[in-house]
């Protein structure tokens, strides 16, 4: 029924705001409640967990100075923004059926989702390249991967993703060009959707290539350390950290591919064939997997990163100490703070 109405609108006026109803594929109240529950649950957990990751990274002087954690913080920030923009726009559109906005407003919301997802994927690519350089050229890593270069790379990343995602708003849409519209997104040109899919596939291909090389070198490092167990030093410790971080990020990439491959497959299929009403509903439910991916990433960091895990334990212990500290006298509290400051100064002197 919905697809028949869409065909009528497509023949009449494909850029009319009434055609927005064609993309509201959730017909029953149970489907709307299910989508709303998944979005609110995954979105809330995603924002909380990624905010915690950002706090742990920037509250520690060690982690916030490392380029690797700058890229991870960019990933966490992208996931937070994607969750907020996606949940608000997706629930308003599919659950509350709000269409009292202009074409430009819709394309702006869609551009925000595309920007943050592309930035998330690109952050994974930068992290993969960081591990690639760390393992391929360990002696030159600190010279090649500096904080300044990391910030420049992140700036180029976000500007590029925002520019590509803004192209429909700037004029590359089926209304302005009078071209074929996408079946999945209102006002989106079919050629733009094809180009965006190619962009995402190139990013995934580069990430897979980089991690394939990282895992190959990591396997060589493991074999080398097993043969030279008597040689224990900073170099072997760094190798172990690189191997562990590479495995962690491969887990992140695996979750990313599993969560986003159904959507990408349906997008590619929609370019060559017309989607049924059932597949439109499947696409709507599969879209919530992006929130699941953003929610799982911080859990992987907490389980695999010793630095973030130790920082998390310190935060928990600090909260546990607060009730006891409030009962202490000011003299005792001042003495406690002084001892902490002295300990930190000693640690900085040693490092």
Can you put this structure into words, describing what you see?
It is globular, with a radius of gyration of 24 Å. The N and C termini lie far apart (69 Å). It has helices spanning 2-12, 29-58, 61-64, 67-94, 103-136, 141-144, 147-165, 167-170, 174-177, 190-227, 234-272, 277-286, 289-304, 306-327, 330-350. The chain contains 15 helices and no strands. It has 351 residues and is mostly helical. It is 81% helix and 0% strand.
Low-pLDDT segments: 1-5, 7-13, 328-351
Work out the strand percent: under 5%
| SSE series | HHHHHHHHHHHHHHH
Mean model confidence by pLDDT: 79
Specify the oligomeric state. Answer: single chain
Biggest beta sheet attributes:
none
- Class based on secondary structure composition and strand pairing: mainly alpha
Tally of contiguous helical segments:
15
Radius of gyration: 24 Å
Helix content: over 70%
- How many E strands? 0
First-residue to last-residue Cα separation = 69 Å
Global outline = globular
Give me a quick take on this structure.
The protein is mostly helical and 351 residues long. Helix content is 81%, strand content 0%.
Please render the helix and strand layout as text.
Layout: H1 2-12, H2 29-58, H3 61-64, H4 67-94, H5 103-136, H6 141-144, H7 147-165, H8 167-170, H9 174-177, H10 190-227, H11 234-272, H12 277-286, H13 289-304, H14 306-327, H15 330-350
Helix pairs in contact: 2-4, 2-13, 4-5, 4-7, 4-13, 5-7, 5-10, 5-11, 10-11, 11-13, 13-14
């Amino acid at each position: 029924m919905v697809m028949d109405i869409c065909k009528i609108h497509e023949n009449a006026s494909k850029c009319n705001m009434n055609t927005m109803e064609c993309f509201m594929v959730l017909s029953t109240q149970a489907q709307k409640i299910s989508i709303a529950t998944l979005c609110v649950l995954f979105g809330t957990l995603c924002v909380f967990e990624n905010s915690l990751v950002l706090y742990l990274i920037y509250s520690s002087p060690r982690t916030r100075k490392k380029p690797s954690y700058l890229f991870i913080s960019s990933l966490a920030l992208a996931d937070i923004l994607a969750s907020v923009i996606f949940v608000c726009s997706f629930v308003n559109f599919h659950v509350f059926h709000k269409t009292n906005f202009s074409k430009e407003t819709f394309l702006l919301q869609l551009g925000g989702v595309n920007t943050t997802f592309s930035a998330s994927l690109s952050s994974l690519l930068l992290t993969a390249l960081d591990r690639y350089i760390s393992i391929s050229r360990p002696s030159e890593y600190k010279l090649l991967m500096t904080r300044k270069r990391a910030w420049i790379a992140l700036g180029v990343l976000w500007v590029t993703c925002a520019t590509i995602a803004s192209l429909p708003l700037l004029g590359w849409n089926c209304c302005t060009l009078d071209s074929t519209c996408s079946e999945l997104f209102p006002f989106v040109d079919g050629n733009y959707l094809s180009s965006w899919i190619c962009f995402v596939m190139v990013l995934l291909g580069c990430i897979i290539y980089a991690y394939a090389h990282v895992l190959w070198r990591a396997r060589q490092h493991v074999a080398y350390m097993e043969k030279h167990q008597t040689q224990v030093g900073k170099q072997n410790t760094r190798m172990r950290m690189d191997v562990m971080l590479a495995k962690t990020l491969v887990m992140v990439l695996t979750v990313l591919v599993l969560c986003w491959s159904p959507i990408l497959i349906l997008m590619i299929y929609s370019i060559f064939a017309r989607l049924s009403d059932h597949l439109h509903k499947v696409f709507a439910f599969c879209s919530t997997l992006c929130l699941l991916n953003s929610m799982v990433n911080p859990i992987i960091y907490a389980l695999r990163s010793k630095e973030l895990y130790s920082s998390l334990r310190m935060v928990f212990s600090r909260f546990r100490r607060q009730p006891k500290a409030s009962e202490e006298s000011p003299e005792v509290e001042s003495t406690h703070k002084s001892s902490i400051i002295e300990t930190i100064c000693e640690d900085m002197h040693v490092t």
